[in-house]
Amino acid sequence: MKKIIIIGSGGFAAETYSYMSQYDNTDIKFIDDIDANDAREDIKPKLIGKISDLDDTMISENLFFIGLGDPRKKQAMYNSLKKFNLKYYSFIHPTSQVSPSAKISDGCFFYPFTVIANNAIIGSHCVINSYSAVGHDSTLGNFSTLSAHVDITGNVNVGESCFFGSGSRTLPNINIAHDSRVGAGNVVLRNTSKSDILMPNVPKKIRPKK
Question: Which domains does the chain have, with CATH numbers?
Protein backbone atom coordinates (compact mmCIF):
# COMPACT_ATOMS: atom_id res chain seq x y z
CA MET A 1 0.00 0.00 0.00
CA LYS A 2 1.24 3.48 -0.90
CA LYS A 3 1.20 6.01 1.91
CA ILE A 4 0.53 9.47 0.49
CA ILE A 5 0.23 12.91 2.03
CA ILE A 6 -1.61 15.53 -0.01
CA ILE A 7 -0.43 19.06 0.71
CA GLY A 8 -3.48 21.32 0.61
CA SER A 9 -7.13 20.79 1.44
CA GLY A 10 -9.18 22.70 -1.14
CA GLY A 11 -11.37 21.52 -3.99
CA PHE A 12 -8.52 20.31 -6.19
CA ALA A 13 -6.96 18.37 -3.32
CA ALA A 14 -10.29 16.71 -2.59
CA GLU A 15 -10.80 15.83 -6.25
CA THR A 16 -7.37 14.27 -6.63
CA TYR A 17 -7.97 12.29 -3.44
CA SER A 18 -11.18 10.84 -4.86
CA TYR A 19 -9.34 9.44 -7.89
CA MET A 20 -6.26 8.26 -6.03
CA SER A 21 -8.27 6.41 -3.41
CA GLN A 22 -10.53 4.81 -6.03
CA TYR A 23 -7.88 3.47 -8.38
CA ASP A 24 -4.69 3.00 -6.36
CA ASN A 25 -4.06 0.96 -3.23
CA THR A 26 -3.35 3.96 -1.03
CA ASP A 27 -3.49 5.31 2.50
CA ILE A 28 -3.98 9.06 2.03
CA LYS A 29 -3.76 11.85 4.57
CA PHE A 30 -3.75 15.66 4.26
CA ILE A 31 -1.72 18.48 5.73
CA ASP A 32 -2.51 22.18 5.39
CA ASP A 33 -1.89 25.38 7.29
CA ILE A 34 -5.54 25.98 8.14
CA ASP A 35 -7.57 25.56 11.26
CA ALA A 36 -8.96 22.03 11.33
CA ASN A 37 -12.45 23.41 12.02
CA ASP A 38 -12.32 25.27 8.69
CA ALA A 39 -11.48 22.17 6.63
CA ARG A 40 -13.91 20.66 4.14
CA GLU A 41 -16.09 17.98 5.70
CA ASP A 42 -14.83 15.32 3.27
CA ILE A 43 -11.21 16.08 4.18
CA LYS A 44 -11.48 16.89 7.88
CA PRO A 45 -11.22 13.24 9.10
CA LYS A 46 -7.94 12.79 7.20
CA LEU A 47 -6.35 16.14 8.04
CA ILE A 48 -3.43 15.17 10.29
CA GLY A 49 -1.73 18.48 10.84
CA LYS A 50 -0.09 21.54 9.37
CA ILE A 51 2.67 21.76 6.79
CA SER A 52 4.92 23.04 9.56
CA ASP A 53 4.41 19.67 11.32
CA LEU A 54 6.48 17.81 8.72
CA ASP A 55 9.09 15.68 10.45
CA ASP A 56 11.63 13.04 9.49
CA THR A 57 9.23 10.16 10.11
CA MET A 58 6.50 11.62 7.88
CA ILE A 59 9.03 12.39 5.16
CA SER A 60 10.60 8.92 5.19
CA GLU A 61 7.32 6.98 5.31
CA ASN A 62 5.23 8.87 2.75
CA LEU A 63 5.04 10.03 -0.81
CA PHE A 64 3.72 13.55 -1.29
CA PHE A 65 1.42 15.32 -3.72
CA ILE A 66 0.93 19.10 -3.92
CA GLY A 67 -2.84 19.49 -4.04
CA LEU A 68 -2.94 23.08 -5.26
CA GLY A 69 -4.59 23.78 -8.59
CA ASP A 70 -3.06 27.18 -9.38
CA PRO A 71 0.33 26.72 -11.12
CA ARG A 72 1.92 29.74 -9.44
CA LYS A 73 0.82 28.70 -5.95
CA LYS A 74 1.95 25.14 -6.64
CA GLN A 75 5.41 26.27 -7.70
CA ALA A 76 5.69 28.54 -4.68
CA MET A 77 4.71 25.66 -2.38
CA TYR A 78 7.25 23.38 -4.04
CA ASN A 79 10.00 25.95 -3.57
CA SER A 80 9.12 26.36 0.10
CA LEU A 81 9.39 22.58 0.59
CA LYS A 82 12.67 22.00 -1.26
CA LYS A 83 14.61 21.81 1.98
CA PHE A 84 12.71 18.63 2.96
CA ASN A 85 13.72 16.70 -0.18
CA LEU A 86 10.26 15.12 -0.45
CA LYS A 87 9.48 12.22 -2.78
CA TYR A 88 6.47 13.04 -4.96
CA TYR A 89 3.70 10.80 -6.22
CA SER A 90 2.21 10.88 -9.73
CA PHE A 91 -1.27 9.60 -10.59
CA ILE A 92 -2.16 8.48 -14.12
CA HIS A 93 -5.81 7.51 -14.54
CA PRO A 94 -6.18 4.01 -16.05
CA THR A 95 -8.12 5.40 -19.03
CA SER A 96 -5.19 7.65 -20.01
CA GLN A 97 -3.27 6.75 -23.14
CA VAL A 98 0.43 7.41 -22.62
CA SER A 99 2.95 6.55 -25.31
CA PRO A 100 5.79 4.29 -24.17
CA SER A 101 8.23 6.86 -25.55
CA ALA A 102 6.75 9.73 -23.52
CA LYS A 103 8.57 10.93 -20.41
CA ILE A 104 6.54 11.73 -17.29
CA SER A 105 8.10 13.49 -14.30
CA ASP A 106 7.06 13.20 -10.66
CA GLY A 107 4.17 14.91 -8.91
CA CYS A 108 1.84 14.89 -11.96
CA PHE A 109 -1.88 14.19 -12.11
CA PHE A 110 -3.62 12.85 -15.24
CA TYR A 111 -7.42 12.88 -15.25
CA PRO A 112 -9.56 10.36 -17.21
CA PHE A 113 -9.13 10.06 -20.98
CA THR A 114 -5.95 12.10 -21.34
CA VAL A 115 -3.58 11.41 -24.24
CA ILE A 116 0.20 11.82 -24.18
CA ALA A 117 1.69 11.16 -27.62
CA ASN A 118 5.06 9.76 -28.65
CA ASN A 119 8.20 11.52 -27.43
CA ALA A 120 6.21 14.06 -25.42
CA ILE A 121 7.89 15.31 -22.25
CA ILE A 122 5.75 16.18 -19.22
CA GLY A 123 7.52 18.17 -16.53
CA SER A 124 7.07 17.74 -12.80
CA HIS A 125 3.86 18.67 -10.96
CA CYS A 126 1.79 19.09 -14.13
CA VAL A 127 -1.97 18.60 -14.25
CA ILE A 128 -3.69 17.33 -17.39
CA ASN A 129 -7.46 17.35 -17.14
CA SER A 130 -10.00 15.10 -18.86
CA TYR A 131 -9.95 14.73 -22.65
CA SER A 132 -6.81 16.84 -23.03
CA ALA A 133 -3.88 15.83 -25.19
CA VAL A 134 -0.19 16.63 -25.54
CA GLY A 135 0.99 15.94 -29.08
CA HIS A 136 4.10 14.25 -30.36
CA ASP A 137 7.49 15.77 -29.53
CA SER A 138 5.91 18.47 -27.37
CA THR A 139 7.10 19.59 -23.94
CA LEU A 140 4.92 20.70 -21.04
CA GLY A 141 6.94 22.67 -18.50
CA ASN A 142 6.96 22.07 -14.75
CA PHE A 143 3.86 23.12 -12.76
CA SER A 144 1.74 23.71 -15.89
CA THR A 145 -1.98 22.93 -15.99
CA LEU A 146 -4.20 21.90 -18.89
CA SER A 147 -7.92 22.25 -18.17
CA ALA A 148 -10.41 19.88 -19.83
CA HIS A 149 -10.48 19.46 -23.62
CA VAL A 150 -7.14 21.23 -24.27
CA ASP A 151 -5.17 20.29 -27.38
CA ILE A 152 -1.42 20.85 -27.32
CA THR A 153 -0.45 19.82 -30.84
CA GLY A 154 2.87 18.50 -32.13
CA ASN A 155 6.25 20.14 -31.56
CA VAL A 156 4.90 22.68 -29.08
CA ASN A 157 7.12 23.90 -26.26
CA VAL A 158 5.24 25.05 -23.14
CA GLY A 159 7.21 26.81 -20.41
CA GLU A 160 6.84 26.47 -16.66
CA SER A 161 3.75 27.46 -14.66
CA CYS A 162 1.49 27.93 -17.68
CA PHE A 163 -2.28 27.61 -17.55
CA PHE A 164 -4.60 26.61 -20.42
CA GLY A 165 -8.34 27.16 -20.05
CA SER A 166 -10.92 24.61 -21.17
CA GLY A 167 -11.11 24.01 -24.91
CA SER A 168 -7.99 25.99 -25.79
CA ARG A 169 -5.65 24.84 -28.55
CA THR A 170 -2.23 25.53 -30.01
CA LEU A 171 -0.98 25.33 -33.55
CA PRO A 172 2.06 23.09 -34.11
CA ASN A 173 5.59 24.43 -33.60
CA ILE A 174 4.51 27.13 -31.12
CA ASN A 175 6.54 28.30 -28.12
CA ILE A 176 4.44 29.16 -25.06
CA ALA A 177 6.59 31.23 -22.70
CA HIS A 178 6.88 30.76 -18.94
CA ASP A 179 3.87 31.83 -16.85
CA SER A 180 1.54 32.33 -19.84
CA ARG A 181 -2.23 32.19 -19.36
CA VAL A 182 -4.39 30.96 -22.25
CA GLY A 183 -8.10 31.65 -21.88
CA ALA A 184 -10.83 29.06 -22.41
CA GLY A 185 -11.56 28.44 -26.07
CA ASN A 186 -8.54 30.38 -27.31
CA VAL A 187 -6.44 29.19 -30.26
CA VAL A 188 -2.77 30.13 -29.92
CA LEU A 189 -1.52 31.09 -33.37
CA ARG A 190 1.95 32.40 -32.56
CA ASN A 191 4.65 32.36 -29.91
CA THR A 192 3.90 34.07 -26.60
CA SER A 193 6.05 36.23 -24.33
CA LYS A 194 6.57 35.61 -20.62
CA SER A 195 3.43 36.13 -18.53
CA ASP A 196 1.19 36.87 -21.51
CA ILE A 197 -2.54 36.54 -20.94
CA LEU A 198 -4.41 35.45 -24.06
CA MET A 199 -8.18 35.48 -24.38
CA PRO A 200 -10.54 34.19 -27.12
CA ASN A 201 -11.10 36.37 -30.18
CA VAL A 202 -8.27 38.70 -29.23
CA PRO A 203 -5.35 38.39 -31.68
CA LYS A 204 -2.76 39.75 -29.23
CA LYS A 205 -2.06 39.80 -25.53
CA ILE A 206 -4.46 41.95 -23.53
CA ARG A 207 -2.09 42.82 -20.71
CA PRO A 208 1.28 41.72 -19.37
CA LYS A 209 1.80 40.62 -15.82
CA LYS A 210 2.67 43.57 -13.56
Answer: 2-84 (3.40.50.20), 90-198 (2.160.10.10)
